[in-house]
Amino acid sequence: MIKIENIHKWYGDFHVLQGISEHINSGEVVVICGPSGSGKSTFIRCINRLEDIQQGKIIVEGKDINSPETDINQLRAEVGMVFQQFNLYPHITVLKNITLAPMKAKKIPKKEAEKIAYELLERVGIHEQAHKYPAELSGGQQQRVAIARGLAMRPKVMLFDEPTSALDPEMINEVLNVMKDLAREGITMIVVTHEMGFAREVADRIFFMDYGKILEGGTPEHFFKNPQHERTKLFLKEIL
Amino acid sequence: MHWEVVQKNMVYFLLGSYPHGPLGGLGLSVLLALGGIFLAFWIGILFGLMRLSKRWYVRFPSIIYIEIIRGTPLLLLIFWFYFLVPVIFKKPMPEIRTTLIAFSVFTGAYVAEIVRAGIQSIPKGQMEAARGTGLNYRQAMAYVIMPQALRNMIPSFVNQFVSLTKDTSLAYIIGVQELTRTATQVNNRTMNAPAEIFFTIAVIYFIICFGLTQTSRYLEKRLSYKTSGRMRQRDIVELKDNSEAS
Ligand SMILES: Nc1ncnc2c1ncn2[C@@H]1O[C@H](COP(=O)(O)OP(=O)(O)OP(=O)(O)O)[C@@H](O)[C@H]1O
Ligand SMILES: [Mg+2]
Question: Taking phi first (over 0 means left), then psi (-120 to 50 degrees means alpha), and beta for anything else, what does residue B190 get?
């Protein structure tokens, strides 16, 4: 479903992504970890074209996302994204945060969009907060709203960029639990995180990134028990 | 002191010869300021957005406009329109319209900069989140960025309005019957109370501008209440504390 063919990206002279090739299948849950600055965020932001690549190809559902013929807005509707900093819209209520894109981009009628939003809020466990503003919620609740907002467009893939790193420790689990539910429901997920417990439990594959490359990838079992690369071993020793 | 001069001419200061003749005095000043800021608002939004465009041929005209105007005194701009428009179009334009155009073009450049700063003050993540859900650039601007930016712009925008209100006195120079001109006329006629007359005019300008600034403070507060219920609660607690203390 997602084919990544030898992509390269530069920020000026700086070679951030140095040739990444991967296939990710429908329904797969992929966790990406690696040291700070290794290009994890940059990589997943390329998948919904928040960043452009200079070489290589990214094919999502058979569409080359960097081709001028691809309708980028339609593509982004199919690839939801959750950010470290939540990025909820502070000036509108939780409900409107969720219904905005379905109503404006997909032209779904208000009633229907709200029905979907309530269902999603129920699913992430905060339907009673629908009429509050983002600033009135805790960090964990805000991130769950952000997940609901991403899901409202019925995406085929969800990208998560360190969704729990900005949270107080006691709120991390409420967000991870929502993500685990999603993983079990079979949505394709690419998750940048250092929550190795989460990776062990739900990931189909774990990628280790360093210096703009995916150094190795494999099932959690393989990854934790039998890392091949020195750098992976070092990283695991530090983080576990 | 001859305060009776002020008293006798108060209606003239406020309304000019209205309703028997054209509106003038404070009424005209306020009307010019309101008209000017209204047009400047739309000019400012347009050029502020153009200023942020990725395409150079959209951005460039906006930069030229903003920089030229910011380097030109308003009085000179009024002269330009007053003396040049008749030359170009071969017929004179009414003074009031001339000043209104000069005011809008002048203030529009400053509002454009306010709009640009307002948009740039919104965290990058807002645009990314909006685009990330499939909204196009225009929709993201209209529903996510602008509503927040406009709110942040209120204080600077009101400042600009206050400046413009005071600057309407420059219309004096080409014979528009605004507040300052009515004052000068009365002074030239009576000759015995310049201090009283110009003191009164100063007070009138002050009241209007002070009122505007206060309204802006109030608006800023009220709008921020709406975005954050936490703040609302905290303010209620503070209010209680204050009333208990006093
Ligand atoms: N817009 C940019 N311009 C220039 N350099 C950038 C930009 N964004 C990121 N970089 C650089 O690219 C490198 C990779 O950044 P990226 O954010 O992808 O790392 P990361 O693996 O997500 O790190 P972290 O764990 O800290 O989030 C970093 O060295 C960063 O400084
Ligand atoms: Mg990152």
Answer: alpha
